Prior knowledge:
Helix content: 25-40%
CATH topology of the largest domain: Rossmann fold
Shape: elongated
Strand order of the largest sheet: 8-14-13-15-16-12-17-18
Number of helices: 14
CATH class of the largest domain: Alpha Beta
Number of domains: 3
Strand content: 15-25%
Number of strands: 18
CATH architecture of the largest domain: 3-Layer(aba) Sandwich
Distance between the termini: 59 Å
CATH superfamily of the largest domain: P-loop containing nucleotide triphosphate hydrolases
Radius of gyration: 26 Å
Structural class: alpha/beta
Largest sheet: 8 strands, mixed
Amino acid sequence: xxxxxxxxxxxxxxxxxxxxxxxxxxxxxxxxxxxxxxxxxxxxxxxxxxxxxxxxxxxxxxxxxxxxxxxxxxxxxxxxxxxxxxxxxxxxxxxxxxxxxxxxxxxxxxxxxxxxxxxxxxxxxxxxxxxxxxxxxxxxxxxxxxxxxxxxxxxxxxxxxxxxxxxxxxxxxxxxxxxxxxxxxxxxxxxxxxxxxxxxxxxxxxxxxxxxxxxxxxxxxxxxxxxxxxxxxxxxxxxxxxxxxxxxxxxxxxxxxxxxxxxxxxxxxxxxxxxxxxxxxxxxxxxxxxxxxxxxxxxxxxxxxxxxxxxxxxxxxxxxxxxxxxxxxxxxxxxxxxxxxxxxxxxxxxxxxxxxxxxxxxxxxxxxxxxxxxxxxxxxxxxxxxxxxxxxxxxxxxxxxxxxxxxxxxxxxxxxxxxxxxxxxxxxxxxxxxxxxxxxxxxxxxxxxxxxxxxxxxxxxxxxxxxxxxxxxxxxxxxxxxxxxxx
Length: 487
């Protein structure tokens, strides 16, 4: 087996490098244990993030270095560590097995199976904490990642290698949007990692069941740091998911990682830091909370051809309270990422789903990855939609508008109906181009808002019968759609 062969190779290297000589070792002792951490005395040469062994066979990771003691994250929930237990060095860093054996699996942040199946075969091992690729190893983001969601693929496009934040209040549809994006990767040559941080077991089971029923587990790995886990395990979860995706990226493959969500991750890090007696700062978060997420998200990139050409796209989720996007953690993440998709609870309550607030959403580099034809049509459409949103405000006060403004409002309301989309219904890129071309050409102006979904279904059925390439001339697209809508 691949995992056994890799382990044997590592053991053989250690045996070959062994030399008979005098060795001085250090032994420490546990001072106290509690809340998933331990304090250890007597290991002065221990390094940050080093793995330590306890005498009961369990492991811990050095998290806090102080002058006389170490703060250790316990990595084994069933550990029998007690005050006075011996602790020894290993000189190792925390790693997780990576490779295709993880596809379809549900694991914890240490790679232990949570799906009741045997351990997976790892092709290699990746460190949970590693440096982000240097600038010389990176390439421009110039290939699209299609989410299958109309409003995102057209107005807020995402490129492969981008970091796009999904932000909104509790219950605004963030997880649904992320799951739909994973479902849309079927047949796109994309391998996905879905990281659940601090979620209830029932919520995690529902998401996993949804991925399984739609066939998405075939190309997806789920990493779960559940709500009952220690703060240390929840802290490690996104780094484990990133390491798994990096294993595929280094092989030249395209990967997508969803971090659901980094608000919970920040709270777990705050709890862990306070347990380690680190000085609190704003909102009791430690001073390095910005660096925590920066070093995680900076690992998302597209590599140059000389370094394999793979990509790692990150979709971090963050929760706001009462729509306050200027809060501490959301502001930090907005400054780190390449754009954000803002979900508004008021739009959600009004039945506009997905509840994406287009004026507050932005993709700073995704437009460079859009197909030229889609980018051309989307540019025209976005201007019409933003003008409609401004004009609609005046209609609430009973303001009488001129005929041209009334026409723009009618088109805008029709476009809003077009952009609505049911869950679990990802749409292909060709259909996105088709309806945009039809809308910009005025082919949908004669339809009442209630009749728009039927017209879109005619276009979708027509494309299924007679597919068109994205590079086909615009006149050919228009001629086809006129025939489909006339029928």
